[in-house]
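CORE FACILITY INTAKE
Project code: CF-77B
Contact: R.S. (postdoc)
Sample description: multi-component assembly, two entities in total
Requested service: structural model of the whole complex
Turnaround: standard
Below are the sequence entries exactly as provided by the requester. Do not edit them.
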Amino acid sequence: MEKLVTALICFPFLWAILPAVIHNSKCRAFFVYLGCAIVMALSVFTAILWYAAGGKTFDFRLPYQEAFGHLFMVGDVLLMFFITYLAYKYKKLIISVLTIVSTVIPTVLELFGPKLADSFTMRFDWLTFIMILIIGVIGSLIGIYAVGYMHGYHIHHHKELTDRRSFFLSMIFVFFGAMFGLVFSANLCGLYFFWEITSVTSFLLIGYTRTEEAINNSFKALWMNLLGGCGLATAISLGYLWFGTVNLYDFLRFEKLNPGDMRCLLPIAMLAFAALTKSAQFPFSGWLLGAMVAPTPSSALLHSATMVKAGVYLLIRITTAMADNYVGNMVALIGGFTFLTASCLAISVSDGKKVLAYSTISNLGLIVACTGCGYEETIWAAVFLVIFHAVSKSMLFQCVGAIENTTGSRDVEDMQGLMSIFPKLALILMIGIAGMFLAPFGMLISKWAALKAFIDTKSVYVSTLMVLFICFGSATTMFYWTKWMSKILGASKREKSRDLTKKNEYISMFFHAFLMVALILGFPWLSEHVLKPLSRNMFGAVEQVISKENIFIMIVLLVGVFVIPLINYFMTKHTKYTPVITYMGGANAGDNMSFISSTGDAKEMHVANFYMEEVMGEKKLFTPAIIISSFVIIVYLIIVIGGAF
Amino acid sequence: MDLSTRLILAGCYILLAPIVIGLLDGFDRKISARMQGRRGPSVLQPFYDLKKLFEKEFLSANKMQLFMIRSYLCFIILSGILFYTGCDLLLVVFALSTSAMFLILASTTTHSPFSSQGTHRELVQIMACEPMELLVAVGFYLATIPKTFSVANIVRNSNYSNIVFLPGFFIGFVFILTIKFRKSPFDISTSHHAHQEVVKGITAEMVGKEYGMVTLAEWYENAILYGMVALFFINKNPLSIIGAIVVILAVWFLEILIDNTSARVKWQLMLKLAWGVTIVAAGMNLFLLEIIRG
């Protein structure tokens, strides 16, 4: 097992060299496919092997752990020099301060500080199991999609940009390696190293096009993530100075042994802070929105399988140390607030990718809120949300990317009648949207559990606020998804045209769709055989989170959503009817698409969605949201830090 | 509750709900007419209307509509069955909001300006009401000991009527009922008056049996909403059912009164009012209830 894990972490890093040095398009594509296939196979194989062995928590040290330790340290320093160089090059020197501070202090402590007792550095448990499957399977699919997409991107649409596909594809592999390392690490120094790699890689991916906007946005992402890195570095330093350990699980244990001791809570608070920046919660949401300038596969990667999931992963890890204390309350409030605000903001935008970005932030908010609460039910919900969100968001991003490549626009308004023009793309989009919000699907099952748990939270005001956040956020979520869905299904005059989507893009998207349906059908099994042992591990309790009766009702609703429209469709298929034209107030030109204007000739009628900019616009909500959330974080951190000293 | 009782209850709901709500609708028209100094139609008029709608020739701008409207009706009935057989209240609310989505999809398939405008206002209306509906479920969960979302257990475990703990929730719920019933201050997505700008809005392109099904679905939905009103008053004691019926009639009359005495508002105001009332009435009540039950 140790060898497999080592291979899983090292293989993508080494494989990343291949696409970087091969410049022949066909040949490179082959190696990327092969690499993705190997990563996928390796992760699934490792996961199954572990599952078959009984799913026991497994602590170990990597072979050549010492060498790896030195490698991590050298890597940290190299990353620091790299960032400093870039910051100097683009005249953003202030950013280098963050990286220097957050790298130098832990490194100095590691070299000259107290000697720590040897303990395990890696852990394989149920959460790791879920995460490596997400990274391995979803991540590889995005890798496969990226080859075709980037080809179309440079050949058809953006001929003006320098073709840096080699770099792009190799970065994807670096990302996989870093994510695998991150979810296995129990040692914070290792975790910090992989954490920094994901920050830098995402920075490079966002800046891919090298336009001014891309560069600015990539630096925005960098400084926010480095700020989070400072949080991690602080936790490591505290471990050296106060506790004599840098093992993540020791921190959790200390907190549980001394609840209420602020000194034990402080490292947890720092880790939570780091995770909040990574998972793009308010006030740090800006970087994920800015990440949209990058080509679609990188957005898909950042939003679904990697990056933001790293933050959420860490929060789920430390959730048991956050139950009913200041840090937990802070995380829950920030998460709930983000859930509501981001879904309000999603109503007011019409750019498809932006809607997806806001919905990611909003969903992550719900997950973060769940982790902050720290009960069995919320963790059950959080893990489910992570799984469903990874699959459906990756699918949606790929689909919107394909639509943009084909129709030249990713605006929701331009997707009028997509169902009749590009039925395959529309179908995938519909499944993805349904996966995000429709009644018995992932989101609402989880919302049910989350709501129930929030009512039971001990702190009265947190509980009240959280319930309100969820209720209102749930209503606003419905608005923007339904609006989008109705656009796709609407009538359209446009003729069918050629679909430019590549075969490999379709393979990836259909596989996602299949995965989505399988997950939905398999959710009771998943709950029983994966989620239950997970919460048993974390909480030591085996409680039925959702009663049998409710699982039954959910299945009935689920079948209903699929079957009722289908039956009705076939029953009404041959109903005789007289076609009529729609009522337009004035004269319908005869095709339901245009009307006779005052000059006497037909004009096309444009029907647009509601965006409610004056009520929920970005201009109106964004800045206040940042102020409020910053205030909450600062107040709570002051309480914790003040209590610790 | 055993399966046979549940089946009987489900059957009763399917058969009785349209009859009862149809009758209430008939009386509604009669009383409204009297308030306006008219005689008004027979109380059975809603049923005649429905019959006529189903007998009409089937005209449609887009045949896709029919299967979505049928799905809408089926889903509403499903939610109603869940509610009246005593299942999970929160899931009932989720099922209701799913069914609304089918109505919206049915309406937007036609690319008609009036139905499109009505649809988006309908979406705003759903957004205005949904938090309160969810909060009602939360309220009952907190008020009942032991805590439960199950409708059957809420009734069975309550020694007193839950209104004692949930006055704020009740006020909020009655407020959004006015929106749910599409009474005139809030008939924003589908105006019954031809002179107003939406001209039947969301149902503008639905004729004959399509419109009949939408009407029927709304009756079934109203039956669920009245059921929720009753839930505030029903307790372990079977006699409380009488109290619940009295309150339902009072609420029903109040809605007629509001319908006939108020002017129409804009959707912006509706959203502000509905959310405001939800936060103030239900939010305060929730906070206090958490303290009591904490």
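Facility notes:
- Chain B has a mean pLDDT of 90.
- Chain B touches chain A through 73 residues (CB under 8 Å).
Invoice: internal transfer
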